[in-house]
Design a protein that fits this description.
Jelly Rolls; mainly beta; 5-stranded antiparallel β-sheet; Methylamine Dehydrogenase, Chain H; elongated
Length: 509
């Protein structure tokens, strides 16, 4: 369906709804619903509005939180919320339940005075300790410097030590950079001194990494497998994917099939790998990850590029020397990716891929060290402010709180399919709504000759906003529309509904 109509002496150009960023092609005559440049805006239901402001939680640490983990206590019968947060910062681990005002430090395992790394891989599991009337949910954590630990919450109020405990797990001298649960075993990889090795625990016991004894079947014990690629590559991540385990290397992906050691089969997949483990996110029947040249998708058979042309200009701004800082996650049909741009050595911007309507949004000055989604919230830790934990929100009109950052929306170039026509005498019609305080919009028409801008200040509205008309002179063979707001207060929300109409005078040669 065309986004414009041409009459005898003028034309009507319609922007029916706002979708997101699309930088593929030359930006001339493209779908008018998409922007060639969009910054700090969101487009729920096709409406243009500012990015929602994250909620900063009132917890205080003096050092950066590099890992935020989550334990859901399914077997817990106490009176508080079963969700528990675990934060890694400053060489220590801290926990917080819903009834606690702030985080409390966890004890160290016997023989440990401080952790050497704050970057942990983690998996929830359950055990059956003596004296417990039901299974107990625990958190397993591991990194390549400190090895593997188990965090046990108190399981009844009557046990002799009703407190949280942390214990080291003997994994046969190997330290895992990544761990994952698969076929009722815990698997470990990214071993610094054995990069091609994957190890697995005994079934149903994540604390036992001993091989089967003389009177046991081999599948009853722990073990390891080697999967060399002969090029210096190493395992970077493990993810359970339906009834299989996906083992990622920097340049390759392996699929592990089978339920016990006698059945394990490794199959190399087609395509690239996952050099940046913190960007991997499983979405039911597909896995998202980032390669050096952009986003990639694993569909169970191969790894292929995803949505790269749509952000090709934006991707060129990434600091390629700091790409190891990137992190990504999935939450409510959106893939969030935090990136370092320009000369930044920490993540300072964020791209959001909406997988349901296939739109892309871009946010500047969004400093995120790590993500942690739960059933009801998306947490993030700050890469710029030590100890800061945020709740990421969406839909600033509903929350009533915008980010307060400048916004920008730039349409594709329009030539009406008539390169022989001069276009001029532009009239822009749009319907802004504003809450609480006035907002000033800068509306611009750019031709290949120059940019003309006008400021439109909109007062808060109690009922639906009146339509605004902005008229521009000047002519050109092609033109585009630019809508911007400057820095505003964070509690000011606005939106443009119903799309935009541009009436253009035409004059053929």
């Amino acid at each position: 369906m065309a986004y414009y109509t041409i009459k005898a002496y003028d034309a009507d150009v319609f922007l029916t709804s706002f979708m997101g960023l699309q930088q593929a092609g030359d930006g001339i005559g493209a779908d008018f619903r998409y922007a060639v440049e969009a910054m700090n805006v969101e487009t729920p239901r096709g409406v243009l509005q500012p990015q929602a402001k994250p909620v900063t939680l009132p917890y205080g640490f003096d050092t950066k939180i590099e890992t935020l983990a989550h334990l859901y206590r399914r077997w817990y019968t106490g009176g508080e919320d079963p969700e528990v947060l675990i934060a890694a910062t400053g060489g220590r681990l801290y926990y917080k339940t819903s009834t606690m005002q702030d985080f409390a430090a966890l004890s160290f395992p016997l023989g440990t005075a401080i952790y050497q790394s704050n970057e942990w891989s983690w998996v929830s599991y359950e055990i059956n300790p003596p004296g417990s009337p039901a299974p107990v949910d625990v958190l397993l954590m591991s990194n390549a410097k400190d090895g593997m630990i188990i965090i046990k919450p108190p399981y009844t109020a009557t046990v002799s030590n009703p407190s949280w405990t942390v214990e080291s797990i003997n994994t046969g001298g190997k330290k895992f950079g990544v761990i994952e649960r698969y076929a009722e075993r815990i698997w470990g990889g990214a071993i610094p001194d054995d990069p091609d090795m994957l190890m697995y625990s005994r079934p149903f016991d994540p604390t036992d990494w001993t091989a089967a004894g003389a009177n046991e079947e081999p599948e009853d014990g722990a073990g390891d497998v080697q999967q060399p690629s002969w090029d210096g590559d190493s395992f970077t991540a493990l993810r359970q994917f339906g009834s299989q385990l996906i083992a990622f290397k920097g340049n390759r992906v392996w699929r592990v099939l089978g339920a016990d050691p006698g059945e394990y089969v490794f199959k190399e997949q087609y395509g690239g790998g996952a050099p940046f483990a913190n960007t991997i996110a499983v979405d039911v029947e597909r896995i998202f990850m980032v390669e050096r040249d952009g986003l990639a998708l694993y569909d169970g058979l191969s790894v292929s590029p995803y949505a790269r042309e749509a952000i090709e200009k934006l991707w060129k701004t990434i600091n390629r020397n700091a790409m190891s800082q990137m992190c990504g996650t999935l939450y409510k049909e959106k893939y969030y990716l935090s990136i370092p741009t320009g000369n930044n050595t920490v993540n300072n911007d964020m791209i959001v891929f909406n997988l349901s309507d296939r739109t892309i949004l871009y946010y500047t000055d969004t400093f995120i060290e790590s993500f942690m989604p739960t059933n009801d919230a998306l947490y993030a830790t700050s890469s710029s402010q030590p100890g800061k934990i945020m709740l990421l929100t969406y839909d600033s009109w509903e929350t009533g709180v915008a980010s307060g950052k400048p916004t920008k929306w730039v349409t594709p170039w329009v030539d009406l399919g008539r390169k022989s026509y001069n276009k001029g005498g532009f009239e822009v019609y749009f319907s802004p709504e504003v809450r609480k305080y006035p907002v000033t919009f800068r509306v611009s028409i750019q031709t290949e000759k120059k940019v003309k801008s006008k400021l439109v200040t909109v007062q808060p509205t109690l009922i639906r906003a009146k339509q605004k008309r902005v008229r521009f002179g000047g002519t050109g063979r092609m033109f585009r529309l630019i809508i911007e707001t400057l820095n505003t207060q964070s509690d000011v929300s606005w939106r443009l509904t119903g799309g935009i109409q541009i009436v253009v005078e035409t004059d053929p040669d």
